[in-house]
């Protein structure tokens, strides 16, 4: 396909903050070293297949607005779509891409045909990956679009749907393994309920736990070296989804003994729907040892749904990048741009421009977060707030054998009478803003 879809655009290069070229990076310099790694290594950015090449601009009130020279109805259309996708990967120079099985090939008339189509397209992907240098950050299976999944996949009341979903995930994992994917993602798009009146919560959660356990077993059986990731989301399209947020998924993994086998893929928009700040989800996942990968996007705060807009506010991303860097990064995860252009952005160039703005915002946040860490003052402030816990008596309260009685006796004997101390929230906010 050459450059038939994007014309003469690209390749996009770093030109610095003063550049007026709309098709240049102003802050994302892939080779710039930040805390011992290049920006490309720290961010590991990926282009997603579904929003860019699978979505045609329709919404619940309007039909498609994009003119795309491919379709997903036959394999010829899938090949044309792959041509455009890898052309875009090369233009942007992002090291990774991501896909759902249904994004890249038609399902056909049966699961067997679906599997053959997926095997064929992965052969083509392997050739294009070798030619362009693009790598697979993660693959996944679409277990939510087809009507068979309207009541869930693993949690469906129909065991045949559970079985079909298991077979579909097997095929998607095989494809991901074949392409040397760094991770495999499970997102329970419809694993939840619309009403509790027709829902057996315990049964459905047990089914979901068994399903995920089988995925873990299959990973080890085929020798897949990537990380298994679960993506939390609280709602939409269902009223309530079982993978509500980091805390909920953490408890679920511990219940089924999977906390050492699975990590989390966190998305900005999903955090917002759960009424959390993105940095809350990142910080909590990191504290629990579950932070695996990130989806970079944003929601419109005036809308009550997942709008999947490109991130464009570096300052909002700084706290999240701080916690990412404090744990040493997210590799083998990365920053997947699960973002889509608006329905009115109908030019192919808009796809490129959205990614340029998004990665520039992430790069700006990365630099600010790195400056906070290198400077050391912010970390020192946080450490000073908890300095009292370094005392032997304080540490003893957290050790096995400490009791309420022994602590109460020490309070009485030492006449402990703590006085309130300021949390200095405004000062912390001011300090962070100095770096942004």
UniProtKB/TrEMBL annotation:
The gene is xylA. Its EC number is 5.3.1.5. PANTHER family: PTHR48408, XYLOSE ISOMERASE (PTHR48408:SF1). Binds 2 magnesium ions per subunit. This is Xylose isomerase. It comes from Roseiarcus fermentans. NCBIfam families: PRK05474.1, xylose_isom_A. It catalyses: alpha-D-xylose = alpha-D-xylulofuranose. It is an enzyme of class 5 (isomerase).
